[in-house]
Amino acid sequence: MDGKALRILAEGEGSYLKVDPDGFRSHTAQKDRRMRSKLMTAAEAIQRYVADGDYVVWEINYLQRGPAALLREIIRQQKRRLWVGGKFTWVAVALLVEAGCCDRADMGFFVGGGAVTRAVLEKRLTIYEYSNLVMTARLRAGAMGVTFIPIRSLGGTDGFKYSGAKLIEDPYTGEPTVIVPALNPDVALIHVHQADEYGNARAFGTNISDIEAALASRKVIISAEEIINTEEFRHKPGLTRIPYYVVDAVVHQPFGAYPGEMPGSYASDTAHVIEVFGAVARDRIKAYLDKWVYSVANEEQLLSQLVGMTKMAELRRRASSVSLEAYRA
Amino acid sequence: MIGKGPWSEATKATSFAEREFQVCVAARLVENGKCYWVAGGGGPMYSVLLAKRLYAPDVIYVAEDGVVGAEPMLPFDPVMTLAAARPSHRAVMWTNMNGIGDQCGVGYLDYGVLNALQIDPYGNINSTWLGSYPVEGRRVNGPGGADTIAAMCRRLVLMTDHQRRKFVPKVDFISSPGYLDGTPGARKRAGLPADTGPYAVVTNWAVLDFDPQSHQMRLRAVAPFVSVEAVIKEMGFKPLLFGGAGDIEVLDPPTEDELRIFRSEMDTRGQFTDTASHWVVWENERWTMVEKEVVSTGVFV
Q1: Residue B122, φ and ψ in degrees, nearest 5
Q2: A109: buried, middle or exposed (CB in 10 Å: 19+, 13-18, 0-12)?
Q3: pTM
Q4: Annotated active-site residue in B18, B20, B64, B258
Q5: A68-76 and A42-49 helices cross at what angle (nearest 10)?
């Protein structure tokens, strides 16, 4: 070398999803830009767009606006060897691991419990260590079409050693700087308030990184509380969070975040949230899955048979009122 | 480092849980006019909310799910203390996780407040694995947003229970950075921003800070119901002592006002303080610590 090579001072030993922005561009080149209906059921969407071995990301499931229904469908269909991106996820990783769906995870945060510990010790699950914001930074890089992104955290931790991060001598300042690989997942699962049949989507309230995930992922599955007319998007285009052409499937899924809440639409089912938290903490996930996932064929049955109209009406009445008003003005 | 304040003159409580004391002390440390990044519910968020009510009206806080400057709808539902409607109520802004990370990156987030599962003399935190990673022991939740908070906020306040198993000579896994190996420039060499790092540790028995030169934890103040010896005995390493003999401050107990607000607005069902918390009462001119069935009298040693 001529002495101008970038100096790598340290690097983590963790595997990371292959970084290939041009490969990703080749994929987006094939996606249909035409406005065509992508409406389908959750079962169809998961069947068509989630393959065994895929890398999957989602938002906070089971707390607020998570794609809870889509995740349950993944478990029902017994997808295998998923690699999951745990950017601020909650109980989903433990549920997926215990259901045998997942063998690699980039973390993040999750509610672990005995099932995850057992899977790690028995080498059924490999965890690569990041943090919530490092994962969202990786998705941001993926959404920019670049190969890595510098960050100012993770350095010096043991997580760094078990990640795909590198410590480099910053070519601009000469100072040590951590870089992490861009992330372009195979699948993003995103639950929103409103979508049209083509995939234009609105989600209200805070979010973790759904916009980045939608742009960065090969296959994007949107589930929506409500399917609205495209004219409404044209009337208030500033509310659109995801443009239709990045989306592959649109699922009309009322209460799709259940038992979590949907800001302005319904409150969380607190008893259920405590039940699933307890099931993970006390290592009783199988019984929970039997009761709430495997006992019904689909989400419509879950709502009609296990949740019921009375509970749904109560949760709608308890919705945070301020949230949606701001957007409906 | 806390010293006297409005709490010194207010009516003192005579019966409280240790964890209530911890939240009150952390609240007194909150600096008015600064922006805090708090990690979810529990002690960190409660101490900032309590401070805002009583001592620091111009304090503002953000949460990693994109909530900026909320006026939360209290009390929270169980476990729904972050990424939920009530904690994000009446915010001035809803952004996303990268949005909060950006604010921290450019330096607007002055303080971070975190719970620590395991902590070492240099303020390094473990929240990933207890035991020998990853072959023996137990997986815990992971750093979540704490790694970024610990790396990039200007000052970091840590909260933990005062127990030997929490204060260890070496953490099993560094999930979030303190002063790393304590050597000068260690954080900079790891790529972290300048002028950042652990500032204080608040437990149910004591307040500790970090020696500016050695970056080692040092004892600054103890609760009125424990001795300095008891505080040190219940740590897995010996902290430095601030100043000379007699320089360790004795903290004021909670005030009636602090407890009224904390109990009626935040910990309304005792869900936060009822677990892993002893009860402390003032009777016969001394503090008595009630430890489940066992009652010990006098200064708890």
Answers
A1: -100, 10
A2: buried
A3: 0.95
A4: B64
A5: 70
- Residue B193 to residue A152, Cβ atoms within 8 A: yes
Break chain B into its structural domains and give their ranges: 6-296
Of A279, A315, A227, the residue nearest A98 (C-alpha): A279
Taking the C-alpha atoms of residue A97 and residue A286, their distance in angstroms, rounded to an integer, is 11
Q: Is B272 left (phi over 0), alpha (psi -120 to 50) or beta?
A: alpha
Q: Which residues of A259-273 are buried (b: 16+ CB within 10 A; e: fewer)?
A: bbbbbbbbbbbbebb
Q: Is the pLDDT at A210 greater than 80, yes or no? A: yes
The predicted-structure confidence for A73-117, as pLDDT tens digits, reads as follows: 999 999 999 999 988 889 999 999 999 999 999 999 998 889 999
Q: Residue B152, exposed/middle/buried by CB under 10 A (0-12, 13-18, 19+)?
A: buried
Contact call for B192 and A87, based on CB within 8 A = no
Tally of CB atoms within 10 A around A325: 11
pLDDT at residue number B300: 41
- Going by pLDDT thresholds of 50, 70 and 90, the confidence category of residue B1 is confident
Helix then strand then coil, in percent of chain B rounded to 5, is: 20, 25, 55
CATH architecture type of domain B6-296: 3-Layer(aba) Sandwich (3.40)
Please, which residues 204-233 of chain B have a Cβ atom closer than 8 Å to chain A? none
Q: In chain A, helix, strand, coil percent, each to 5?
A: 40, 20, 40
Q: How confident is the model at residue B277 (pLDDT cuts 50, 70, 90)?
A: confident
Which pair of structure tokens corresponds to residue A94?
A: 């433990």
Q: A8-328 has which fold?
A: Glutaconate Coenzyme A-transferase (3.40.1080)
Residue A206's pLDDT is 86
Report how far residue A95's alpha carbon sits from residue A32's, in angstroms, rounded to the nearest whole number: 34
Kindly report the three-state secondary structure assignment for every residue of B203-227. Answer: CCCEEEEECCCCCCEEEEEECCCEC
Rounded Cα distance, A199 and A25, in Å: 20
Burial tier of A82 (Cβ tally within 10 Å: 0-12, 13-18, 19+): buried
Residue A1: CB partners within 8 Å, gap ≥ 6?
A: none
Q: In this structure, what token pair is assigned to residue B183?
A: 């050597």
Q: Is residue B258 within 8 Å of residue B54, measured between CB atoms?
A: yes
| Nearest CA-CA partner of B241 in B250, B232, B233 | B232
CA dihedral A95, A96, A99, A102 (to 10 degrees): -150
B87-107: per-residue pLDDT in tens?
A: 998 999 999 999 999 999 999
Q: Is A132 on the interface with B (CB under 8 A)?
A: yes
| Of A263, A235, A274, residue with least CA distance to A321 | A263
Sheet holding B279-283, edge to edge: B15-17, B279-283, B286-291, B294-296
B 58-97 residues with CB < 8 A to A: 64-67, 73, 77-80, 82-86, 88-90, 94-97
How many Å apart are CA B57 and CA B73, to the nearest integer? 17
Helix ranges restricted to H, B33-112: 43-54, 97-105
